[in-house]
Amino acid sequence: MNDNGMLNLLVFSDLHMENSGSSQDTRLLTEDDEFSKSILEKISELDVNLDYVVCSGDISNKSSPVGFDVGWKFVKDVADYSRVARENLIVVPGNHDHDSRLNNSHCPKYNLQFSVDDFPFPNKVDNTHFWAWNWAHKEYEEFNLISVNSSAFHGYGDEWKHGRVPNRTADQIRDYMKSEAVRKKKFNLLVTHHHPFRMDYVDQEEDYEAIDGGEYLIEAVQNSRKGPWLIVHGHKHFPDIKYGPSRGASRPVVFSAGSLSAKLYPKIKDRTTNQFYVLSVDLDATAKNGGVTGEFRTYEWTMTSGWRLSEGNSLPERGGFGSALKSMEIIEEVAKIFENSSKRIAKDSEIKHLNSYLKHLMPEDLEVLVAEFKDEGYIADISGNEFKEIGVSNG
Ligand SMILES: [Fe+2]
User: Fold this and answer.
1) Distance (Å, rounded) from C-alpha 51 to C-alpha 235?
2) Is residue 1 a part of any domain in this protein?
3) In angstroms, what is the span from residue 379 Cα to ligand 1's centroid?
4) What is the mean pLDDT of the chain?
5) How far is the CA of 76 from the centre of ligand 1 (A)?
6) Which residues, in sequence order, are CB contacts of 303 under 8 Å at separation 6+?
7) Residue 2 has pLDDT above 80, yes or no
8) Ligand 1 centroid vs 367 CA: distance in angstroms?
9) Domain span at 341
10) What is the pLDDT of residues 192-248, one digit of tens each?
11) Vertex 230 angle, CA 216 and 198, to 5°
12) Residues with beta carbon < 5 A to ion ligand 1?
């Protein structure tokens, strides 16, 4: 944790490493090719102290054993370049890491268990629990981690088409989290590969890949009553951030990491990019809001510019999560600036303090805020979760 109470997580997913000379599927060909080096170089230059590295699976492509071995080594290189210790590297396998269609072996997880002895956890006890029960818990200083293998049933029938977490597994996790064996922390982190809810909007068609039992799982972990949840997943190669369903005010934050290096398929290639993220959890604000609260930064790769802060909307360069504020509460503060005054544009000094209202708003909430400003007769120029200018609209 940094001095300012921020916990910084480097998040990436879906590498699809092949260890080949060329690939239709991925830009990440070998551990030391040009693209790999560009990722490590960018990460080592980040102006942030990273506390954890989170990788939500599909390290390998199409269950390539050598792709996994080389990809796993690369993931550990990412942690090294992030100056994050192995214990703080959090990783789960994806469907491409399993031999889902039994091409190379008789068991989908055979290579994952036998090729390396430090995956996904650094020690055998945690790994034995993970492979036996398809989930494992680890206590960190600031949070409890639940790692879930959403591809655990691949290899049977057409299971490869989607993720699965049986209700009994979710009940088991809930009961364990509820028990005295688990000490309450500032928040909880659940990492899994598949998405827990359908994402029909990605391909504009029915999405059958989501975790079967995903909604039950998210409800079950919330029922453990051990504080708020942040859920990180991959698989769709399409980034997103939203709140998951909750019966109460403490909504889980669901972060869909885009792909670090897969070549994006036609339906999404013009709508997003290859990306990685820095998620900064504000521990004080999280305690105050009762939901995981913080900010994110998106780094993207483009053919012309290499790695840079995102210039698109999916996802934007900066954004927030966890704010409990309503648009009208912010607009009422802005109205005070123009009260009993004929001025039409607010001074920089008058709007600076308002930025604290914006920093934990999700991108969607910012869009709604801009629209509501307009409805109320104001013009708000917002970028990077900050007000640039606020004025009164004509007429
Ligand atoms: Fe996947």
Assistant:
1) 24
2) no
3) 42
4) 94
5) 20
6) none
7) no
8) 30
9) 327-392
10) 999 999 999 999 999 999 999 999 999 999 999 999 999 999 999 999 999 999 988
11) 45
12) 58, 94-95, 235
